[in-house]
Amino acid sequence: MSSSWIRSLSAQKRKFGYGLFHNPLKSSTNSIPQFCIQRHRDLTTIGSFFTTSSFNRIGIPSLSWIHGRPISILHPCILQATAELCTLTNVEPSDTDSCSDAGARVEVSRDDSDDNVATKEVRVEYEKPVDFTKVKKNLLPTVILVGRPNVGKSALFNRLIRRREALVYNTPDDHVTRDFRDGIAKLGDLRFRVLDSAGLETAASSGSILDRTAGMTASILARSQFAVFLIDVRAGLHPLDLEVGRWLRKHAPGINIVVAMNKSESLFDGSGSLAAAAAEAYRLGWGDPIAISAETGLGMQDLYGSLKPMLEDYMLSVLNNQENTDEGNFSDDSSCEIEDSKLPLQLAIVGKPNVGKSTLLNTLLQEERVLVGPEAGLTRDSIRAEFEFQGRTIYLVDTAGWLQRTKMEKGPSSLSIVQSRKSLMRAHVVALVLDAEEISKARRSMKHDEVVIARQAIEEGRGLVVVVNKMDLLKEQEICDNVMEAVPQEIQTVIPQVTGIPVVFISALEGRGQAAVMHQVIDTYEKWCSRLSTARLNRWLRKVMSRHSWKDQSAQPKVKYFTQVKARPPTFVAFVSGKKELSDTDIRFLKRSLKEDFDLGGIPIRIMQRNVPRKAANGNSKSGQFTNRMPDRIFSDKRTVSV
Questions:
Q1: What's the pTM?
Q2: Which spans does this entry mark as compositional bias, Polar residues (predicted)?
């Protein structure tokens, strides 16, 4: 670089003045950009001028070196002119233009022949850092939590998803988690799918619950890319931890594993016990262990630091190998109005223990999602799964067996009952599963617990579908016909406030009737979300009130108009004139007429009433006190007074 460049630079600084803020792009003599354009072709010189070392952390050029001499670049006009260097219109474009936006670089190949710029190819190349918050769920990496029983996997799962979904209970001699559950983890700016698995015991007998849970964990390990191996640091390196480590090397040889020492909050006392535990954890052979505490959140920053480089490298490889464009890989956060009936459907499968709820869930999903077996009370957690049916997103929730909570029940079973009740209140439609074999033997459809479930679902305003399972166990056709005839009649007798509750007879084990169940669920959900116009309701009201037999015509309430104020469930308001209100019989009559005339059977309907005060006979209401006569004006010496 010649010294003439320095003299020209000093001349430009003298022209604009030291310490004055000047916009060179608004100047009539825009000499600095022209000066930069003349020097733009010297790539070596410009590259040495824009060195990374010449910029401090706040983006202000501090010191540049020219021919071994440091010069200070402090003037704002010089900074702005050099910053606008890459955006000047006179600079000739290169053969490949690149730009970066949110971690992606779009490379566009151009053809400059015959002065026509033709785009040949558009290729999106993603770079670090990756914005995980905008990546679609199906592209996110999967991290599974593994370890022996009772090391805190469910507690860490709740910490990562920031909700208390998985059951957490200290049971040294039992296993709380039996089915794996998944969720979207939020760890700083990282987003990934996290799976909570059951505790592994390699010495479990064949066919036992522990052996079946280990087989399910092995199947989901094949679909995971990363794993967090948890150990209980307070108990030291257990021999079962070494067996689990050997099991992981056998069933998941290519998975990236991070060792986490859980429950380490009590070892931060400066005695060196944590360092000794870490040295012992090195025997597992997966590098440096991380000290965390799932209960208190200790060590989450260290876990973030260990997972971030691995997740970013995986995410970059996935995004760059995708054939879709940038819009296909990233989700659109723009809010759009969607009808209530098109929103994701929340379906809760409830019932007594061992009636086939988990088998029904697996049949609907067409996979072994939850653990099934002849043991009663096998499901403990409320497992939530997502699937598509006829273009509609449906969230299935398999709940534990519904039992009345008593004072004698303690431990995980008591927590399962509470979780099942919460799942029922969050659902849109409730599928009550009955046992056809028990119905045929007991000659009654619903027992006390099942009646409680149905009534609570109706009181909460949820749609209800009754599913009679295990129809394959009824060998005689006469018994099947009797069950199919008796169940709807008894349900109508037990729950008289809702008419037309759909009943579906299936065999989940053989896969018969699952399509009929989903069709009834969707039909009930659409009714639950239905909205009726006020004009249509008022026309209906005139017909209904004319055909109703009133005992005393003088005491007949005057319903001015009828309107729907909300859906999910449908709620209506009847505006009644005078002091006479609708009786309970009249409200039941209106509900039954709504269900018959508008096909709203099987869902709860709510009707409220409001009184509309009548106007006084002499017309001395507040609105009638005002007339159209102009007020007289009285003139005075000082001002005009209006009376």
A1: 0.71
A2: 618-628
